[in-house]
From TrEMBL:
Gene3D superfamilies: Bacterial extracellular solute-binding protein, family 7, Periplasmic binding protein-like II. InterPro entries: DctP_fam, SBP_TakP-like, TRAP_DctP_sf. Keywords: Metal-binding, Signal. GO terms for molecular function: metal ion binding. It comes from the Bacteria. One of its GO terms (cellular component) is tripartite ATP-independent periplasmic transporter complex. It comes from Solemya velum gill symbiont. Na(+) binds at F219. This is C4-dicarboxylate ABC transporter. GO terms for biological process: transmembrane transport. Residues 1-30 form the signal peptide. Substrate binds at E160, R181, E218, Q244.
Amino acid sequence: MDHLKKICTTGSKAACAAVLSLAVALPAMAIDKVRWKMPVAFKSSLPGLGSPSVFAAEQLEQASGGAMKVKVFEPNKLVPPFEILSVVSEGKVKAGYTWIGYDQGKIPSIPLFAAIPFGLKPWAYMSWYYEGGGHDMLQEVYANKGYKVHAELCGIIGPETAGWYKKPLESLDDYNGLKIRFAGIGGKVIQKLGASVTMMPGGELFQALEKGTIDATEFSLPQIDQLLGFNKIVKYNLFPGWHQPFTASYMLINKGEYDGLGDDTKALIRNVCTAATVKGLTTSEYNQGAIIAGFGEKGVTAQKLPRDILVKLKSLTEEVLAEESAKDADFKRVYESQQAFQNNYKLWEGFAYLPSDL
């Protein structure tokens, strides 16, 4: 109220009266007192991927005047990354921040909200999620499988790389017998090519490459992969990230905890997570060109996959998506919704955006 007093001291009586009447008319925000522990799946130091979790926690505290305090716990400090969904649903912790694609073994349709091979670009996915019913579908998907969580999109980044390899990928036959860490639906695609696919958290990948537990890996953006040290062991970084044109992360909140919050608190969470999503995307897009420009001095070769290989991967992807749709009603419903939007979006994209070489 100090700034209002200043207006009343230095301004006219009419201005003072108008300001004070407005202050009385505007109801104060009723923000619930919250003290949450929030385990995260990624190191908060990873730009764009992990950093939005800290951004969201800081903004919630600042915007609530300290009423909401969310303490971020780094991977494995409180909960292993792959257990975040379960502990939040069970109420052992009130919130978590994760890439929900890790839970595809529990919820078949969940990767569609995390990363879709040959799918939407990040801003187009955001459009479908916010405007095309994606947010509500995600809540329904969790409920249908018995998980008691509320999910808010709270971070998104651009395409990953197609992985780090010991030698160039010359044909799809090179996947046969390859021991590789690969996530999400893309992992099912390359399994069809004979790859031995394993899943492990990002913090374990450097050691797995170093020891030869895996021959190759994908994880995230060039900047993040370099921070994790992959370029020190394997020197071929493949592009484009056909398996993850976007990577979406979410704040999961225990459903009972969320339902007990007031509307103002829910709105604050929603708005902060929307801001964190935008912040994650801008952070992820800002530095990648400079990282790739520095590959040469680190002895790294960037290989762009030939079109014929991408065409075959897309065909295999369509097979996998059809198989998954036939097995799970939620998968079919969400996938058809996304495809309908993507088909229309391509018209806009094709007419509206400049060619990439101009």
